[in-house]
Design goal:
This is ABC transporter ATP-binding protein. Keywords: ATP-binding, Nucleotide-binding, Transport. The protein has a 6-stranded mixed β-sheet with strand order 6-7-8-3-9-10, sandwiched between helices. It has a 4-stranded antiparallel β-sheet with strand order 2-1-4-5. It has 2 domains: 220 residues, Rossmann fold, CATH 3.40.50; 59 residues. The radius of gyration is 25 Å and the shape is elongated. The relative contact order is 0.13. It is α/β, with parallel strands linked by helices and 305 residues long. The mean pLDDT is 91. The chain contains 10 helices and 14 strands. The structure holds adenosine-5'-triphosphate. The site of adenosine-5'-triphosphate has 11 residues, from β2 and α1.
Length: 305
């Protein structure tokens, strides 16, 4: 198999005695959207900061396009765009001037920078109307930070919670925009707490907990490996007293509900209901969402009605 555009091996970060990231290995293929999820403090931001050369790993290696980040950080930065979780912007500046300033830092020729800024503002539906950055809404500020991350037209984007804390419309806009960046050939690693967003957007997902990899794969692979398919059978009978097929039975409205992962329980219950002259109200399969699997992997007990 060809090496990925990003290859991470045995990555570790210690802060004093505390191990924030431990023996993390993964690879990202060109043109993929790769999502990193995990509870607060899992080590997501620390990982992204190491990928962006903002902090140095304690151990392990990171290669991008075959270049070792330990010795080629400057070259890697030229094709990398980083969006921090909280991006301090120069509040007193106007958006165009701010983006032009970063374009100059990245040595983008002026004419090219002007064209690029125009395109970015258009694509992100950003119309600052001469306002200073400090006077923009939170969603607009996030869009400015995204525009800044793209000013040098990088191939690899590292986005820390790009759409968090925004209203649903802006959040959706940014999610769709990230999808369009993939379509234009960019490789994107991002972190998020919204697992529906991650599931709909990512080619591959890495789940982190306590700095360690819990699992890595497509949403489908993770679902297959960890998701227990359950059956929910709802029925009506006059007398439930001699039912003893499943230990877990609930009364919901006028019906009884059995939830089980054992198809035999479903078959036996169906027969028992028929023998009692009762009716099956509904029988359905419950496929777990990524969010449910995530919560279960994190040790949170789930209840299904
Ligand atoms: N500079 C630092 N010094 C000491 N500990 C740190 C430092 N930065 C992060 N940590 C610790 O490392 C752990 C991982 O932090 P990190 O910010 O990477 O988590 P995260 O998964 O991004 O969390 P969140 O979802 O809350 O953003 C946390 O326990 C955090 O307190």
């Amino acid at each position: 198999m060809e090496p990925g555009i990003i290859e991470v091996k045995g990555l570790r970060k210690e802060y004093g005695d505390f191990v924030a990231v431990d023996n993390l290995s993964f690879s990202v293929e060109k043109g993929q959207i790769f999502g990193i999820v995990g509870p607060n403090g899992a080590g997501k931001t620390t990982t992204l900061k190491m990928l962006s050369s903002l902090i140095r790993p304690t151990a392990g290696s990171i290669h991008m396009k075959g270049l070792d980040i330990a010795t080629n950080a400057v070259e890697i930065k030229s094709f990398l765009g980083f969006l921090p979780e909280e991006s301090p912007l120069y509040e007193g500046m106007e958006v165009d001037d701010y983006l032009m300033y970063f374009a100059e830092l990245y040595c983008v020729p002026k004419d090219q920078a002007k064209k690029r800024i125009r395109e970015l503002l258009f694509d992100l539906a950003l119309n600052p109307d001469g306002k200073k950055i400090g006077d923009l809404s939170k969603g607009m500020k996030r869009k400015v930070a995204i525009a800044r991350s793209l000013i040098n037209d990088p191939d690899v984007l590292i986005y820390d919670e790009p759409a968090s804390g925004l209203d649903p419309m802006t959040s959706r806009y940014i999610t769709d925009y990230v999808r369009s960046l993939k379509q234009s050939g960019k490789t994107i690693i991002f972190t998020a707490h919204n697992l529906y967003q991650v599931e709909s957007l990512c080619d591959r997902i890495l789940i982190l907990k306590g700095g360690r990899l819990v699992t890595l794969g497509t949403a489908e692979e993770i679902r297959k490996e960890y998701g227990k398919i359950q059956y929910r059978l709802e029925f009506k009978v006059d007398d439930i007293t001699d039912y003893n097929i499943s230990e877990v039975i609930k009364e919901v409205d006028e019906s009884y509900v059995v939830i089980t992962n054992d198809i035999d329980v479903v078959n036996q219950t169906t027969k028992w209901v028929a023998s009692k002259g009762g009716d099956i109200v509904e029988m359905r399969t419950i496929v777990p969402s990524l969010e449910e699997i995530f919560l279960e992997l994190m040790g949170v007990e789930l209840f299904v009605d």
